[in-house]
Every structure is written in structure tokens, then in C-alpha cells.
Amino acid sequence: LARASFFENFAPAERESIAARLNSRRFKDGETIFMRGDPGSTLMIVVEGRVRIGVNTAEGREMLLTIMEPGQIFGEMSLLDGQSRSADATAMGDTLVLTLERFDFTATLRQFPEAALRLCAMLSEKLRRSTDQVEGVTLHPVNVRLARLLLTIAAQASKQSSKPIAGIGNPRLKGNPTQRDLGQLIGASRQKVNFHLGQWQAEGIIARDGNAFAIQNWKALQAIANSDA
Ligand code: CMP
Questions:
Q1: Which of 24, 77, 96, 179 could cross-link with 48 by S-S, CB 3.0 to 4.6 Å?
Q2: pTM of structure
Q3: Example GO molecular function term (predicted)?
């Protein structure tokens, strides 16, 4: 729990009292955790693996909203507004989640006003990212959107010390975002993502080391992220 940013400011005794009310569940790579429209009764905390949050059509097309990393929570929206699950959640790689029942979640929020504020901050961040996603698709070309996404992923990776740098473009390694995933996050095709990554690699802006990637020329990538052409 100490790794989950939602709980990070809790005193150890408070964390222990919440930990006693948690259950754990394991999911295999690609397994559905819940689907949009399901009734929501639990909050979930990612411990191992990752979780894709997206919306899928009956024809198999997916809009990927975000990828939840260890320490992040999801499934809070339906607990707060009493509506059904707003998106699908699917395990990426073998995934372990902790679950907290609605009653215990709402009791926690009532007992710890700091937690309620923290949750508001998390929801604000989600809304902000959502606005950025819509803004990107509506107003910016793919190279700008992709540069922004890589910078965001890199910033997240460095915040979570134990986390490896996000893998890209290697579908053989279970649980890592592929080029297709990156494309879905920014509303672009895998081919376009592949084109820009290849170009940036040739220009020395990014370097690929097997499955991982590293930003070599931050200034150049930031310049692309802030450009509009
Ligand atoms: P809930 O609606 O219970 O189930 C789906 C979950 O996905 C939701 O709670 C949030 O935790 C998460 N979610 C839904 N929409 C978004 C979004 N646009 N960005 C990030 N996470 C989201």
C-alpha cells in the first residue's frame, strides 16, 4: 500500500487498518478484469503487471484510455457516482490487484479527509489528461502527440523508481505497451507510430535497447512536443 500514491500520506497504523480489509486477485495476460457496463462494487489497486483501461466495440476496435501501472488505483468512478463501470479493464501481463469493497472505500474517505482530497486530485489529473488527449487528436499532428506521450511515459517511469522504462514495440514481451498501444493512446495507427519512432531513432532523438527505449535528446523531443507542424 505504501507504494500506492493514494495511500502514501497515510500513517502506518491507518494503512494497516485498510490493509486488513483488502483482498487480492490475480489475472492472466489479456484476461478481463471487468467490462464497461458491469455494476461496480470494488476499488482496485495494481500491485504487479499493468491494466489497460479502454473502450472496445463489438467489432473488436479498441480505444485505449490509459494504462495503469503498479501503485495506481482504478475502478473508483462507479463507486463514487453509483453508475456502472465506465470502461473495460484488462490485464497486461500476469497481474495482481488488491480490491477494496465499496463500503470500506467510502468509510475510508469519510474517516480520512486527506484521502478524499487526494482522490479529487487524482480525478482532476485524469480529467486533465483526457482534455489533453482530446486536444491532441483535434488540434495536433501525430508526431506532436507521440512526442508528448513519450515524455509523459518517461516522466512516470522516473517517478516510480523500481519500474522499468516502458517497453515499446515488442509484442513478444507480455505486458509491455506495443506500438499499437501507443497509437491507440493518441488515436494514431501503428504504422504512423512506427514511422516516427524510426525517424527519431535515425536522428538520435531516441535510442532503443531491445524492448526498452530511452530518450537521448530531450531538447529535440520537447521541441517536437511543443511544435505544431
Ligand atoms: P470505473 O468507472 O469504476 O471503471 C472503469 C475505470 O476506468 C474507472 O472507474 C476509472 O478508474 C478508469 N477510467 C475511466 N475513464 C478513464 C479515463 N478517461 N482516464 C483514465 N482512467 C479512466
A1: 96
A2: 0.80
A3: DNA binding
